[in-house]
């Protein structure tokens, strides 16, 4: 079966540019990111604020970050008082969009630029007036990985930060653009990987996924290395990370962070498109799984089939999945040796051609469908539960069909 060319070739750095506009069926969504956190002078020494360095242990970064606090796609913390501000360092992309929220209320949006401080929580913040100043409130921020550098946090002069209580289980997703919500409405905040991590009960999650990356260690769409190398590093694979660290980015200290209990891998789509041979893809995929298993010997590792894209055949559409033989071979390698820690999640049948945004990337519906099926499968396979909390996970999904009467 011939597959239409799937292009997964955006570099990490270009994502924020795409994120700035939302196209809906070719039309610009007006006021796509309502809200703008006010810029405030960075007042180190200003007595109205108590300042914390980005290294403060009270700040819990999510995902990977380097020693300059670049690239973590999210952070969480608790604070007292009625105000909170974050400062962004010079390695922040200009005008990059971020989502944030007070407690578990709905996501709000703002764009931010480097060398600046923004006040995210103030008297205008929904929910703040009803809260008691001395009470601990949680704050959460999410952006695209590779786009922001945190250079400080500030709270009211009589307020303080404290650490969030970590969930007891951890999920790690290792992927490429198919896992970061590329081309979906709010990118990372619309991705299946985020929806699975945020939708399971008592779970912390980390998404180590870079647009265009291969499994095999070679250059693919601007990534100088494959995940078989990059997964062990602190930083992303963007040109910016390369400017900072050169060819040898620092290693991620697995020992300093909680071990993952569940690892979900969605990789191989870019190898296929970059001419990595079938043999190299299989052997690198096995090397990656063996590496993950040696880092986290107790983790269940799930490998996913690649859905590819849909092509018209006569009067219908048929799915043209990628890497079927290779991924099956990888799974069989473990199954035949009785290594039960490797599991296979079949995506065939979940999607129809209307669930693809472009070039094999899922649209919002496709991401939501995959997350729902995968969470249900994880629950039945491993006995995990879905979170019954009612807080918003996928933002902006009520855009269509909100009419009460027709
Ligand atoms: C931020 O400051 C640094 C050094 O002070 C400077 O090199 C850089 O151009 C500034 N970036 C922005 C976006 O203003
Ligand atoms: C940032 O937000 C402001 C206010 O909403 C808007 O005027 C501006 O165009 C935005 N900039 C970018 C780069 O999205
Ligand atoms: C909170 O109270 C202040 C002072 O009364 C008011 O100006 C502000 O609009 C209120 N905030 C919200 C989100 O309602």
UniProtKB/TrEMBL annotation:
Record protein name field: GDSL-like Lipase/Acylhydrolase-like protein
Keyword set, alphabetical order: Membrane, Transmembrane, Transmembrane helix
Magnesium among keywords: no
Entry-linked Pfam families: Lipase_GDSL_2
Domain SGNH hydrolase-type esterase: from-to ranges: 173-368
GO molecular-function terms, A-Z: carboxylic ester hydrolase activity
Superkingdom classification of source: Eukaryota
Transmembrane segments: 7-23
Keyword Membrane: yes
């Amino acid at each position: 079966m011939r597959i239409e060319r799937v292009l997964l070739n955006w570099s990490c750095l270009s994502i924020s540019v795409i994120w700035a506009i939302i196209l809906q069926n070719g039309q610009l969504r007006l006021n796509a990111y309502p809200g703008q956190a006010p810029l405030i002078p960075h007042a180190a020494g200003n007595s109205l604020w108590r300042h914390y360095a980005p290294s403060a242990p009270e700040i819990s970064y999510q995902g990977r970050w380097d020693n300059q606090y670049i690239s973590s796609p999210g952070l969480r913390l608790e604070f007292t008082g009625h105000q909170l501000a974050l400062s962004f360092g010079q390695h922040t992309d200009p005008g990059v969009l971020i989502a944030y929220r007070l407690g578990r209320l709905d996501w709000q949006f703002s764009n931010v630029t480097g060398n600046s401080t923004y006040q995210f929580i103030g008297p205008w913040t929904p929910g703040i007036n009803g809260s008691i100043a001395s009470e601990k409130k949680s704050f959460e921020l999410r952006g695209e990985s590779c786009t922001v550098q945190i250079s400080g946090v500030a709270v009211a002069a009589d307020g303080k930060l404290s650490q969030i209580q970590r969930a007891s289980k951890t999920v790690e997703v290792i992927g490429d653009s198919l896992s970061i919500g590329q081309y979906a409405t709010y990118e990372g905040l619309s991705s299946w990987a985020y929806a699975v991590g945020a939708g399971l009960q008592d779970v912390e999650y980390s998404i180590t996924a870079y647009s265009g990356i291969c499994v095999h260690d070679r250059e693919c769409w601007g990534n100088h290395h494959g995940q078989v190398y990059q997964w062990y590093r602190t930083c992303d694979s963007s040109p910016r990370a390369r400017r900072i660290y050169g060819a040898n980015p620092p290693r991620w200290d697995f020992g300093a962070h909680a071990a993952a209990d569940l690892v979900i891998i969605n990789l191989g789509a870019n190898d296929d498109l970059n001419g990595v041979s079938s043999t190299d893809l299989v052997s690198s995929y096995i090397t990656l799984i063996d590496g993950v298993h040696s880092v986290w010997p107790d983790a269940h590792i799930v490998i996913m089939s690649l859905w590819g894209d849909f092509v018209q055949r006569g009067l219908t559409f048929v799915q043209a999945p990628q890497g079927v033989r290779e991924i099956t071979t990888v799974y069989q390698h473990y199954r035949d040796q009785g290594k039960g820690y490797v599991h296979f999640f079949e995506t065939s049948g979940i999607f129809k051609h209307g669930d693809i945004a472009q070039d094999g990337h899922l649209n919002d519906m496709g991401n939501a469908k995959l997350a729902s099926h995968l969470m249900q499968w994880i629950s039945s396979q491993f006995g995990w539960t879905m979170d019954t909390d009612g807080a918003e996970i996928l933002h902006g999904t009520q855009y269509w069909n909100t009419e009460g009467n027709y």
